[in-house]
Amino acid sequence: MDVEVCIKHFALDYKFRMSPTTLRIYQGFIKQFINQLGKTVKEITKKDVRNWITYLSAEKGYQPSTINSKIAALKLFFNYCLEEGLVSQDPTKDIKFVFVKENPPHYLLKEQIMQLRAFLEGQTQERAIMEVLYATGVRIGELVAMEKKDINWTERSIIIPEGKRKLGRIVLFTSECAEHLKAYLDSRTDNYPTLFVLFNSDGTRTNNGKIVEEWFRYYSKKLGFKVTPHTLRHTFAAHLAQRGMPVECIRTLLGHEKYQTTRIYAKLFDLARKEMYD
């Protein structure tokens, strides 16, 4: 079977097993690997895979986490090929993932949160976005996908219908967040269903979170410390840990499907609690 056709069939089979974004990224990794080798799927060996991993690390300088994502894509693809009888053996079977040093995620101190709030004073939409990210711990993709109908103002909660790996959940927000969110919504004159309306530099409407990420790069430059939408997600978790919330509860609010995914946050919880104690 032609390589392109094989990858297409793989994508169709996994269409409902993972998010569209993850599937698209995995397809890119698989194509990159096979195109570089110039071999058919049947001709690829374990040595080819190991040489590629060495090439990614030594010559391309990829981070271990990125290399592991590529390995995961290949493992999934060749497992599919084996099940479909497209290969007689899986060349990734005994391939190990690269060791990744797990550093605690970076988060902001409460003083830095206050500085960020002061910097955004008068910026109605940007302040509302910042408050929602900090109060709920949602991912940037979840933020831009939120709709006004998902909000329960009485309970101060927002439904996240499809998070990462299509895991739905409910997140809560504070009264301070509600105040700024209402101020932003009251300032709007449009009828768009989305909670936040974003525009590209050319004036076209978008739901791409990169616009918000660009804003945060600007904040970092002006404030003198790094802050990103994901930093606020880490900060949300850290500050809850400092208040004594159990790890399992924070894991649920973050929308992590498996405890393994939250493992790196364990160090963050320990660090956050130690700083509170000190």
Automatic annotation (TrEMBL):
Entry keyword set: DNA integration, DNA recombination, DNA-binding
Domain Core-binding (CB): 1-82
Matches recorded under InterPro entries: CB, DNA_brk_join_enz, Integrase-like_cat_sf, Integrase_catalytic, Integrase_recombinase_N, Integrase_SAM-like_N, Tyrosine_recombinase_XerCD
UniProt keyword DNA-binding, yes or no: yes
Membership in a protein family: Belongs to the 'phage' integrase family.
Tyr recombinase domain ranges (all copies): 103-278
Name of the protein in question: Tyrosine-type recombinase/integrase
Organism encoding this protein: Lysinibacillus zambalensis
One Pfam family it belongs to: Phage_integrase
Classification via CDD domains: DNA_BRE_C
